[in-house]
Amino acid sequence: MSAILEVRDLSVSYGAIVALKGVSLSLAEGEIVTLIGANGAGKTTTLRAIMGLVRTAGGEVLYRGAPTRSSKTHQLVRDGLVLVPEGRIVFANLSVQENLEMGAYARRDGGVAADLDRVCALFPRLKERRRQTAGTLSGGEQQMLAIGRAMMSGPKVLLLDEPSLGLAPIVVHAIFEAIREIHRSGVPVLLVEQNANAALRHSDRAYVLETGRVALEGPSAEVAANPKVKEAYLGE
Fold this sequence. Notes:
Blueprint: E1 3-14, E2 17-28, E3 32-37, H1 43-50, E4 58-63, E5 66-67, H2 73-78, E6 81-84, H3 96-103, H4 112-122, H5 124-128, H6 139-151, E7 157-161, H7 169-184, E8 189-192, H8 196-201, E9 205-210, E10 213-219, H9 220-225, H10 227-233
Parallel strand pairs: 3-8, 3-9, 6-7, 7-8
Antiparallel strand pairs: 1-2, 1-4, 4-5, 9-10
């Protein structure tokens, strides 16, 4: 499978702190790839660098074979590279319906209504609460809304940063089932996730990031079977 997204030897520094030290990874059509690691390993920085939200000190990002260095973040989003950031960020004073419509604000095609129906099928709770103010939703519902809003932009690649963070187990299950359904619909997913068990179980390939470097990569089942990964991330 050819890569739709490639990160080549990416380096990022915050002042004197080197956050990424030559990170390389790829995501192919039809894949869910997960990036796991401890807090501070550089996972979120990797996603932010892919989206052009932080300045890179070296390396490059290729999206659909073309370098992204000259592209602004909003241009990448319009081209189908979409990030759901950590923290369940929603427009708290707008309704669920308005939040979803905001996800499609840059679209000029005729598929918005159909995508709204698909999001409501993916997350039935959002359909039930379409008129509810987003700030009054539970944490799990806000995460569903953040993902649903991203889907309304018509992504060709979806980047997810800690989608299960702080959520109850039953909600985590629902979120990962939705991720699988998004993948089945034809959208490749790059997933950053501290719940390593769930991330490795629901992905095709995995990268383990340690202090800004890729320490291990391979098929998710093989990574999950690695004794060091079991000890450090899977509690075994």
